[in-house]
Design a protein that fits this description.
The protein is mostly helical. It folds into two domains: about 80 residues, 434 Repressor (Amino-terminal Domain) (Orthogonal Bundle), CATH 1.10.260.40; about 120 residues, no CATH class. The longest helix has 25 residues. It starts with a helix and ends in a 12-residue tail after the last helix. GO terms for molecular function: DNA binding. It comes from Rhodococcus opacus RKJ300 = JCM 13270.
Length: about 240
């Protein structure tokens, strides 16, 4: 039996589908319910639509969430285009971004260095390939930032500017401890100088910069102690 409430609801569903110029198959493909569920909804037959069917109708018919349920109860649906002209369908919902920083283990860094070395060699062997040298140069810059961040952390947790110099660090990452004469980006320059400071090569820094770097290292040590108390003894702050 078709009730007046169900008939009214079916009219809203049918009119909206026709307004959007969609077939029932296209409604299903857009995230809507099955053809059979749509037919029951539009004709007002069978049991009342389930919550899942109502939710799917909202999605496929581009109604604001809750519109189908509200219409079934005697209210009116809210088309997404009526919401201040903003498309708020799930497919265009703003992406929730993750953290701005993620931990990167040494094994992953080593994996990155392998292809980087290969591309660098290819670039040197084939200068005739358009754009290859530029791409290799940009990749080298990014890889240097990644490995530089690792070395910075390594030096922070191993005594900082007052810690012992490790020949292995200089052997493996010596190029990251050199004077950054070719670096122009202010942030990269700051990181390169801070890294040299951590390795005991901050003699050329002015007093204000040395003080800033020293405080930064102290804060880094405190953070390490908070995250991993067992390692706090590896990086004592020497004030």
């Amino acid at each position: 039996m078709v009730t007046s409430t169900r008939a009214r609801f079916g009219q809203f569903v049918h009119r909206r589908r026709r307004l959007l110029n969609l077939t029932q198959d296209e409604v299903t493909a857009a995230g809507g319910p099955s053809d059979a569920a749509q037919t029951r909804a539009e004709n007002g037959t069978g049991p009342d639509p389930s919550i899942e069917t109502l939710r799917k109708l909202d999605v496929a018919l581009r109604w604001a969430p809750g519109s189908a349920a509200r219409t079934l109860d005697g209210g009116h649906p809210t088309p997404l285009e009526a919401l201040d002209g903003e498309d708020r369908s799930p497919t265009s919902r703003p992406l929730t971004l993750g953290p701005s920083e993620i931990p990167l283990d040494l094994d992953t860094i080593i994996e990155i260095l392998g292809p980087h070395t290969q591309i660098t060699k290819l670039s040197a062997a084939h200068p005739e390939v358009p754009g290859l040298a530029e791409a290799a140069g940009e990749l080298s810059r990014v890889v240097s930032k990644i490995t530089g961040a690792y070395v910075t952390r390594l030096l922070e947790v191993n005594g900082g500017p007052a810690g012992p110099r490790q020949p292995l660090v200089e052997f493996a990452f010596g190029h990251l401890l050199e004077e950054p004469s070719t670096v122009t980006d202010p942030r990269e320059l700051e990181e390169a100088r801070y890294r040299r400071f951590l390795y005991g090569r901050g003699d050329g820094l002015d007093a204000a910069t040395r003080e800033r770097f020293w405080r930064r290292w102290e804060d880094a040590v405190k953070l390490v102690a908070t995250e991993d108390p067992e390692r706090s003894g590896d990086a004592e702050v020497n004030a």
